Amino acid sequence: MRVGYLAARFAALACVCLAGCAHAVVIPATSPARRGTDAVLVLPGFGYSRAGEKALRSLETSVAAEGMALFVPTYISRSGLVESRANLQRFIREQRLDRYDRLHVFAFIAGAWTLNPLVEMLELPNLATVVYDRSPYQERAPRIADEELHFLTWVRYGSPVFDVARTPYLPLTFAGAKVAIVVETVPTSFIKGHEQAARAPGPFHFECDAFMQRYDDCLYVQMNHDDLYVRFKEVWPELLSFIRAGRFTSAANRTPPSGDPLADARSR
Questions:
Q1: Could you write out the DSSP letters of every residue in the chain?
Q2: Burial letters 109-126, b for 16+ CB under 10 A, else e
Q3: Residue 264 above 80 pLDDT?
Q4: Which residues contact 141 (CB under 8 A, 6 or more apart)?
Q5: pTM, to two decimals
């Protein structure tokens, strides 16, 4: 039993090192004719790693072709959401994101919990677009980590996971921005491994209205939370469409999954 405990602690500490290898990404606009017009700010969450960083850096050519700048901060603090919010505010100030005509944000789950209160405080005047990554599965992961894996979660991440678990979602009310939601429909291995705890709060609701956030468009992706980081390039065309037209493409899947995807995942 002691050996297993130590092995688990070692594995968790190893994850700290791996997660720490992901760095901020800053790709300035390269087109002189369109420079300074649009900036895309991606707010990663607890799953951000070297693989996620690589996937986001692979967008450089696509972003440059649109004359945009791309920013991906490493803002999450072990101290919790308050310090994470201060880090994000500092990043926005230091990168002078207010100099762009339009600021577009893609927020992973922890990013939403960090961003929304900050927007309400600052009311970023150039905020034009916010696209949220939401998941009826993964949004239960912080509570499970808090209640069942508290020590190992603290070793790996510190306090922000607990803050997300205990803080109700504060919806964005800033009227100046268009809002969209990207809904994950596949459970991660963590959720599948803790299925009973994940089901405990009640049924999973995939309907867009269930996320308590106003939205102008909403789509579903056949990905889990880990997939979305490393396959972000697949979502980029939809994000770009929403930035340009205020709608996802006609090819976007706007139909929520039927049945019980978690049970289907277990049977495969």
A1: -HHHHHHHHHHHHHHHHHHTT---EEE----TTTTTSEEEEEE--TT--HHHHHHHHTTHHHHHHTTEEEEE-----TT-HHHHHHHHHHHHHHTTGGGSSEEEEEE-HHHHHHHHHHHHHH--TTEEEEEEEE-TTGGGHHHHHHHHSHHHHHHHH-SHHHHHHHS-------TTSEEEEEEE-S--HHHHHTHHHHHTT-----SGGGG----SEEEEES--HHHHHHTHHHHHHHHHHHHHHSS--TTS------S-HHHHHHH-
A2: bbbbbbbbebbeeeebeb
A3: no
A4: 188, 190, 191, 198, 225
A5: 0.90
Domains and CATH numbers, the chain: 2-267 (3.40.50.1820)
Q: 42: closest CA among 29, 30, 59?
A: 59
Q: pLDDT: is 208 or 268 the higher one?
A: 208
What confidence category does residue 212 fall into, taking pLDDT thresholds of 50, 70 and 90? very high
53-92: per-residue pLDDT in tens?
999 999 988 998 898 999 999 999 999 999 999 999 999 9
What pLDDT was estimated at residue 23?
A: 86
In degrees and rounded to multiples of 5, residue 14 shows phi and psi of -60, -35
Q: What's the pLDDT band for 222 if we cut at 50, 70, 90?
A: very high
Give me the DSSP letters along 167-184. Answer: S-------TTSEEEEEEE
